[in-house]
Amino acid sequence: MHRFVMTIISLAIFLLPLQIGMAASEAAVGAPDAKPAVKAPNIKSNAAVQAKLDKNKNPQITALRWANHIDAVTGLSTLRLVFDVSGPVTVSSSVIGSPVPQLAVVVKGAVPGDVASTYEFDGRIAELLTVSAAGADTRLVMQLPLMLEDTDYKVFTLRNDPANKKPFRVVIDIGQKMPPIKFNFTAGLKDKTIVLDPGHGGSDPGAVGANKTMEKTITLAVAQRLKPMLEKAGAKVFLTRNDDRDVFGPNASAVDELSARTTVANNNKADIFVSIHINSFTNPIAGGIATYYYQKTPYDALLASSIQSTIAPASGLQNRGINAANFYVIKRSVMPAVLTELGFISNPEEEKLMNTADFQQKMAQSIYLGLDKFFTQAARLGGGQ
Asked: Active site residue: 26, 127, 215, 341, which one?
């Protein structure tokens, strides 16, 4: 019996280190607690679990703060937004024109953490910020009252500063946009100064249809019909060209030619600038009416909407709506401006239609009505800034 007991004790002493070693090894990889074992989920089929895991392993946007700084010289404000991030990231940005002016920033390699999905601002510089996940990135979209130029904003990152207890940061600076002139619109066309810009002309025929119709011919015909209508209503009207000629000069560069057109509007302190064009496309089936704007003032989109709402029904063609665009003449004219596309010259049926006096008269009349509608609506909005 004594020998048997000694054998049991020896065996226990031998096994004890082995059990301790196994326990230590298990603890090193994360031994389960006392809860019942649960079968691991199929991660590939469980998007919510996968997203949670991704969120845990990626840097997160942990906080947002902002402030307005007023420049002592210009008196203009700059809105600064600072996003705290739990790790290093990179950023990209772009300005979007439609459906409203927007600054879109992608924070690459970070997901939204404990931050809200929307933030509202006072509308002077920004109106609304939305924060959303975009895969392993975060997309920040600022809705703006006016379009931004590249020099109007900055987006950059800052490294963490442990000594001062500062985390990694993404910074967005947006300068206050001020329209170059003040507007105080009243209802009606009386005493308004309007510049009409018949697209192309002279050495530049514009788009040419299959039956040799030239864009420059149609745009001038519509503008010449529209001018006396507006003058009869009491408006002062300027045309960038009154006949088939280059506005700047024969064979001028594109920039010189376009600049000459906006100069007519800017120098005459026009209330409104309307550039008249005809569209074209490689597919002859494409057709319809469209109006383009660049939201550099509070009224550009309203002007586009007012004119499109009258010319599209009058044409009987497809309504292609209004669209934001970066066209030189509507961007560089200081007053509200639009560029209309009165059909597709590449569409045989529309080319034939736009050569008729009836169509040209309808387009002139509908632009007239659209302008009158604009001034009525602008006056209701207060007219000024």
From this structure: 341
